[in-house]
Design brief:
- The structure holds two protein chains of two kinds.
- Chain A has four domains: 3-162 and 478-530, NAD(P)-binding Rossmann-like Domain (Rossmann fold); 185-196 and 208-265; 272-381, no CATH class; 391-474, no CATH class.
- Chain A is α/β, with parallel strands linked by helices.
- In chain A, strand 9 and strand 10 form a beta hairpin.
- In chain A, 51% of the residues lie in helices and 10% in strands.
- By secondary structure, chain B is α/β, with parallel strands linked by helices.
- Chain B is built from 15 helices and 13 strands.
- Chain B has an eight-stranded mixed beta sheet with strand order 3-2-1-4-5-6-7-8, with helices on both faces. In chain B, strands 9-13-12-10-11 form a five-stranded mixed beta sheet, sandwiched between helices.
- In chain B, a hairpin with a 5-residue loop joins strand 7 (313-317) and strand 8.
- In chain B, helix 3 crosses helix 11 and helix 8 crosses helix 10.
- Chain B is globular and about 70 Å long.
- Chain B starts with 11 loop residues before the first helix and ends with a helix.
- Classes of the chains: A alpha/beta, B alpha/beta.
- At the A-B interface, helix 1, helix 2, helix 3, helix 4 and helix 16 of A face helix 1, helix 3, helix 10 and helix 11 of B.
- Chain A: It holds the Pfam family ThiF.
- Chain A: This is NEDD8-activating enzyme E1 regulatory subunit.
- Chain A: Keywords: Nucleotide-binding, Nucleus, Ubl conjugation pathway.
- Chain A: Residues 8-506 form the THIF-type NAD/FAD binding fold domain.
Chain lengths: 532, 449
C-alpha cells in the first residue's frame, strides 16, 4: 500500500476510498481562526481535505496563547490567520493551505461573491448580524455553511443549506431486508426444496433460519386464512411451533429462527418516513429536478406497480447458521431478486429522464444501484434560513422547550447566545466582558433576554437566573476545551456534508448530518438539538 | 469585538471561569487568583495513553491551566496514527509516542511540564499512580482500563461506617471512541460507579465458533479467521503468528483468498484481513477531539469545582444525526474493585502461603501469582526476583503476625485472573477478619454498653 493510503487506513475503514476522494476534492473556507475555528480545521486537515483558506484579520495577542494551540509566543503581534495556517500546513502536506488577512465581517459586507468559490464555509464566533448576512450569501451561491460558536461553557453548531438527501445512510439497527413477511415466488419455491422433517440431523441443523421461517409462515397462513401471526398469543404460539420442530438442543439455526421470528410479524410495505418522501412536492419530475428527486419519482412508480407496495429488495442477507452451499444458494436467490428490481427501476429512471428532456444515460448505473440498495433508508434533511429561524422560530416548539425540564437549560442557552449579541450591539461589549461592569450587566442581560423572548412571541417567558448569571460570568471567554469540543462537532458534521457533496455523481452518501441547532451545555453536558 | 482593551494575560479566557464567583458551581469552588495559581502549581494529572485521545488530552489540559502533566504509553508511532494523532509527523514514525507527544506540547505551550513514560502501565509501581490528583484515560482496550481502574480503586479506604474516606478517592476521567461514536465518563471511586461496576457496558468481542470456521464458512471474515486461527498452526506449528509481521499477514491473506474461492465467498481483501486479525477499530480525528475535550473539561471541573460535573456517563453518536446523552449509572454495591473489599475470614494460624493458596480457590477471586501488600508494606512479592527473595521467608509466617496482630484490616493483593479466556492482571482489596480474635471493636462495645 502507498503511504497516503496507509496514513488514512483508520478512516478509510469507515468511509472507503470514494468518501476519501470526496474529502480530497473539497475546498473549505474558515472564518475566524480562534480556537474554535482552528480546532475545526485541524480535524479536517488531518483527514485530508483538498484545500483550506483561513480568513482572520486579527493579530496574535498574549491572551491567544492561553487558548489556541496553533499560535505561539514567537508570533505575538503577527497575523493570526498566517500563523494558524502555517501550523495546519505542518499537519498534512497534501492539503493546500492559504490565508487571507481580513476581518470576515468586512468580507461579508464588501465581497459577497468571494464565498462562491468554496465547497463549504465554516464560520466561527460570528455575531448574529453577520451570520444572517453570510447565510443569505451562501444559500444564494449554493455553498454549504456551518456556523459554530464557543461561549464560556456553552456553544452551538448549526448547519445551513437548502436540502441534504442521504441515499446510503447506515443506520445501525435497521432491519435486514429479508421479506419474510412477504416472500416473493422464487424465495417460496426455493424454500419448498427443503424438508423440515429431514432425518439426517446434520442436514436438519444446517437449514438456514430464513427457510425455516418462510416455511413455517406459509404453514401458518394456510391454516389461518392467509393471515400471519399478529396478536401476542399468536406470536407466542408461532414461536412454540418452531421450537417443537427442533430435534436437538444444539440446533442454532432453530434458535436463530425463534429469535428472528419478529421479522415474519413485521408490517408489510414501506415505512412512514419513506411514505413522506415519496409524497414530497419536490417529486414532480421536470428538467430542473435533481438526480435524487428523479430517482425518488421512479421509486414511487415502482412501489405502486412492480414492487407491489414494497421497495426494491436490498439483496444482502446476514450471516446465519447454514452449510456453505445452501448459504451461497440463498444469497443468489436474494441477489437475483435485487437485480430484477434494479432493472425495473433503471428502466423507469431512463424513461423519466427522457420525459424531462435529459440524456437518458445521465444518471449512472452505479448510482441507481446504490439507490435501489438503500431505498428503504432514504433521508432528506432540510434547513431553514438562519434569518427565518431567528425572526420567526417554530413557536410551539420553542414554548415546549421552555417548559420541558430536559430542554429548558439548552433553550435558555440558545436564547442567551442570541441575547449576548443584542447586548453587544447595544452596549458595545459582551455582558461580563469587563470585570468592572459585572454587577450592572446581569440585569441588563436579563432584560435583553426577556425582550428577545417577547419579540419571538413568548411573552412572559423567563429564563433561570442562575443561567443568566453564568452567561455574564463567562464574559465571551473562548475556553480551549469548549472550543475543541464545539470545533470537533463542527468538523464531524462537515465531514458528513463533504461525503454528500463529493458524491453528487457517485455513490457514497453515507452519513446523516444533524438537523436543527446543536446547543452545547458544558455545565452538565446535557446538550440538546433544537428544531426551531 | 475589535475594541477590546481587555487584560492581555495568557489566562485571559480561563480567568473568567476561575476568578469570578458563579451560581452553577461545586460546593468547594473558591474563585480567585490563588485557585488559578494552585491549579498551575499543585495539580498533577496523569494521562494514560498518548494515542488519538492522549494527544488531544495533553493539549487540552495544557491549555486548561494544568502545568504538571505526565503521560504513559508503551507504543511507538505508526503511519496509521497520522490521520488523527496530530502531535506526530511522518518523520516521527518509530519513536515512542509518549516522548514525542510531550515534547511537542511543551514546545508550543511555555510553562507546561510533561514527563513521558515509555513503558507498560503494569511496569509502574502502584505508588506511582498515587502521586497524581486525577488520572485521565485515553485508552482503547478494556483490559488496560480495568487495570488502571483497579489501581485507582486500591487507594480507596473506607471508614468504620463503610463510607469512603475523601482523601483516598482518586478521580478518573475516561474516554473511548469508535468511528463516529464515543463516551466520556467521570469515575469517583466509592461515590460513582467504577469501571468494573458497569463492565457490562463493554461486552466481550464476539468470536466465531471454530466449527463454523472449519466446516461451514459463509463470510469473508470466516475465511480470514480460518487462515489465521486454524491453517496457520497447521502449517507453521510452533511459529507464533505475529500480526505486525507483514509476511505473516500476507500469508494469512493469501490463504483466506484461496479458501474464499473454494467456497465461493466474496469480499476478502488485504485491508479486511488486517481489520479482522488485528481487531482494528476505525478512528477519526473529530470524534477523538470531542471526547477528549469533554474529558479535559471534566478534569478541570474536578480540580477546581468551577462548574457542575458530568454525572456520570456521556455518550456521543454522530453516525446518524447527532445524539448525546448523559446517563447516571449506579454503583454496584458488591463491586469487588471499588467496594470496601472482599470479606475473607481466616484462622489466625493461617500462614501467608496458605492465605495465597486460598485466594486461588476463592470462587469470587480465582487469583494466581499473587503478591500481597499491607499498609504499603510488601508481605510477599512475585517479582522482581530480588523482592521475591526478600519476602519469601514471610510465606511461612502467619498472616495474623504479619498484619501486626490486628483483629481485622485491609490487604491489597495483585495477581492474575482469567476473564473471557484471557489472562489479565488485577488488583483486589481484601478485608481480612481473623476468626476468634477479640479486637478493639469488641472491647469498645463491651465498655460502652
Amino acid at each position: 500500500m502507498a503511504e497516503p493510503k496507509v496514513k488514512y487506513d483508520r478512516q478509510l475503514r469507515i468511509w472507503g476510498e470514494q468518501g476519501q476522494t470526496a474529502l480530497e476534492k473539497s475546498s473549505i473556507c474558515l472564518l475566524n481562526c480562534g480556537p474554535t475555528g482552528s480546532e475545526t480545521l485541524k480535524n479536517l486537515v488531518l483527514g485530508g481535505v483538498g484545500s483550506i483558506t483561513v480568513v482572520d484579520g486579527s493579530k496574535i495577542e498574549e491572551g491567544d496563547l492561553g487558548n489556541n494551540f496553533m499560535v505561539d509566543e514567537s508570533s505575538i503581534g503577527q497575523s493570526k490567520a498566517k500563523c494558524v495556517c502555517a501550523f495546519l500546513q505542518e499537519l498534512n502536506d497534501a492539503v493546500k493551505a492559504k490565508f487571507i488577512e481580513e476581518y470576515p465581517e468586512e468580507l461579508i459586507e464588501t465581497n459577497p461573491s468571494f464565498f462562491s468559490q468554496f465547497t463549504l464555509v465554516v464560520a466561527t464566533q460570528l455575531v448574529e448580524d453577520s451570520m444572517i448576512k453570510l447565510d443569505r450569501i451562501c444559500r444564494e451561491a449554493n455553498v454549504m455553511l456551518i456556523l459554530a460558536r464557543s461561549y464560556g461553557l456553552t456553544g452551538f453548531v448549526r448547519i445551513s443549506l437548502k436540502e441534504h438527501a442521504v441515499i446510503e445512510s447506515k443506520p445501525e439497527h435497521f432491519l435486514d431486508d429479508l421479506r419474510l413477511n412477504n416472500p416473493w415466488p422464487e424465495l417460496k419455491s426455493f424454500a419448498e426444496g427443503f424438508d423440515l422433517n429431514v432425518q439426517d440431523p446434520v442436514v436438519h441443523k444446517h437449514i438456514p433460519y430464513v427457510i425455516i421461517l418462510v416455511k413455517m409462515a406459509d404453514e401458518w397462513a394456510k391454516s389461518h386464512g392467509g393471515a400471519l401471526p399478529s396478536t401476542r398469543e399468536e406470536k407466542k404460539e408461532f414461536k412454540e411451533l418452531i421450537k417443537a420442530r427442533m430435534v436437538g438442543q444444539d440446533e442454532d439455526n432453530y434458535k436463530e429462527a425463534i429469535e428472528a421470528s419478529f421479522k415474519v410479524f413485521a408490517p408489510k410495505g414501506i415505512s412512514s418516513d419513506l411514505q413522506q418522501i415519496i409524497n414530497d412536492n419536490c417529486i414532480e419530475a421536470d428538467s430542473n429536478s435533481s438526480d435524487f428527486w428523479l430517482l425518488v419519482a421512479a421509486l414511487k412508480e415502482f412501489i405502486a406497480h412492480e414492487g407491489g407496495g414494497e421497495t426494491p429488495l436490498e439483496g444482502s442477507i446476514p450471516d446465519m447458521t447454514s452449510s456453505t452451499e445452501q448459504y451461497v444458494n440463498l444469497q443468489n436467490i436474494y441477489q437475483a431478486k435485487a437485480e430484477a428490481d434494479f432493472v425495473a427501476i433503471e428502466r423507469l429512471v431512463r424513461s423519466l429522464l427522457k420525459k424531462v428532456g435529459r440524456d437518458s444515460n445521465s444518471i449512472p448505473k452505479t448510482m441507481i444501484k446504490s439507490f435501489c440498495k438503500n431505498a428503504r433508508k432514504l433521508k432528506v434533511c432540510r434547513y431553514r434560513l438562519i434569518e427565518d429561524e431567528f425572526n420567526s422560530p417554530n413557536l410551539p416548539e420553542l414554548q415546549k422547550y421552555l417548559t420541558d425540564e430536559d430542554y429548558s437549560t439548552a433553550v435558555g442557552i440558545y436564547i442567551l447566545l442570541r441575547a449576548v449579541d443584542r447586548f453587544a450591539a447595544n452596549y458595545n461589549s459582551f455582558p461580563g466582558q469587563f470585570d468592572s461592569a459585572m454587577d450592572e450587566d446581569v440585569p441588563r442581560l436579563k432584560s435583553t433576554a426577556v425582550g428577545l423572548l417577547s419579540d419571538l412571541g413568548c411573552n412572559g417567558a423567563t429564563l433561570a437566573e442562575d443561567l443568566i448569571n453564568e452567561m455574564c460570568r463567562f464574559g465571551a471567554a473562548e475556553l480551549h476545551a469548549v472550543a475543541a469540543l464545539v470545533g470537533g462537532i463542527a468538523s464531524q458534521e462537515i465531514i458528513k456534508k463533504l461525503h454528500y457533496l463529493g458524491s453528487s455523481q457517485l455513490i457514497t452518501r453515507q452519513f446523516v448530518p444533524m438537523s436543527g441547532t446543536f446547543i452545547f451545555n458544558g455545565i452538565d453536558h446535557k446538550s440538546q438539538l433544537l428544531s426551531l | 469585538m475589535a475594541d477590546a482593551s481587555v487584560q492581555s494575560s495568557r489566562s485571559r479566557d480561563l480567568d473568567k471561569l476561575l476568578l469570578r464567583p458563579g451560581n452553577l458551581v461545586g460546593p468547594r469552588f473558591e474563585p480567585g487568583p490563588e485557585m488559578r495559581d494552585d491549579l498551575q502549581t499543585y495539580a498533577r494529572v496523569l494521562v494514560v495513553g498518548a494515542g488519538g485521545l492522549g494527544c488531544e488530552l495533553l493539549k487540552d489540559l495544557a491549555l486548561s491551566g494544568f502545568r504538571n502533566l505526565e503521560v504513559i504509553d508503551m507504543d511507538r508511532i505508526e503511519v496509521t496514527n497520522l490521520n488523527r494523532q496530530f502531535l506526530f509527523r511522518l518523520e516521527d514514525v518509530g519513536k515512542p509516542k509518549a516522548e514525542v507527544a510531550s515534547k511537542r506540547v511543551m514546545e508550543r505551550i511555555s510553562g507546561v511540564n510533561i514527563v513521558p513514560h515509555f513503558c507498560r502501565i503494569e511496569d509502574k509501581d502502584i505508588s506511582f499512580y498515587n502521586d497524581f490528583n486525577i488520572i485521565a484515560l485515553g485508552l482503547d482496550s478494556i483490559e488496560a482500563r480495568s487495570y488502571i481502574n483497579s489501581v485507582a480503586c486500591s487507594f480507596l479506604e473506607y471508614d468504620s461506617d463503610n463510607n469512603p474516606r475523601e482523601e483516598t478517592i482518586k478521580p478518573m476521567v475516561d474516554g473511548g471512541t469508535e468511528g463516529f461514536k464515543g463516551h466520556a465518563r467521570v469515575i469517583m471511586p466509592g461515590i460513582t460507579p467504577c469501571f468494573e461496576c458497569t463492565i457490562w457496558l463493554f461486552p466481550p468481542q464476539v468470536k466465531f465458533p471454530l466449527c463454523t470456521l472449519a466446516e461451514t464458512p459463509r463470510t469473508a471474515a470466516h475465511c480470514i479467521e480460518y487462515a489465521h486461527l486454524i491453517k496457520w498452526n497447521e502449517v507453521h506449528g510452533g511459529v507464533a503468528f505475529d500480526p505486525d509481521n507483514p509476511q505473516h499477514m500476507k500469508w494469512v491473506y493469501d490463504e483466506a483468498v484461496k479458501r474464499a474461492e473454494l467456497f465461493g465467498i466474496p469480499g476478502v481483501t488485504y485491508s479486511l484481513t488486517q481489520g479482522v486479525v488485528k481487531n482494528i477499530i476505525p478512528a477519526i480525528a473529530s470524534t477523538n477531539a470531542i471526547i477528549s475535550a469533554a474529558c479535559a473539561l471534566e478534569t478541570l471541573k474536578i480540580a477546581t469545582e468551577c462548574s457542575k460535573t458530568l454525572s456520570n456517563y456521556l455518550t456521543y453518536n454522530g453516525a446518524e444525526g447527532l445524539h448525546t446523552k448523559v446517563t447516571e449509572f449506579e454503583r454496584d454495591k458488591d463491586c469487588l474493585v471499588c467496594g470496601p473489599g472482599v470479606l475473607i475470614e481466616v484462622d489466625p494460624s493461617v500462614t501467608l502461603q496458605k492465605f495465597i493458596d486460598l485466594l486461588e480457590e476463592h470462587p469470587k477471586l480465582r487469583l494466581s501469582r499473587v503478591s500481597v501488600t499491607h499498609r504499603g508494606k510488601n508481605l510477599y512479592m512475585q517479582a522482581p526476583p530480588v523482592l521475591e527473595e526478600m519476602t519469601r521467608s514471610n510465606l511461612s509466617l502467619t498472616l495474623f503476625e504479619l498484619m501486626g496482630k490486628l483483629s481485622k484490616d485491609v490487604v491489597n493483593v495483585n495477581g492474575t485472573t482469567t476473564k473471557n479466556d484471557q489472562k489479565i492482571s488485577c488488583l483486589r482489596k481484601l478485608s481480612v477478619v481473623f476468626k476468634g480474635i477479640d479486637g478493639v471493636t469488641d472491647m469498645d462495645t463491651a465498655g460502652g454498653a
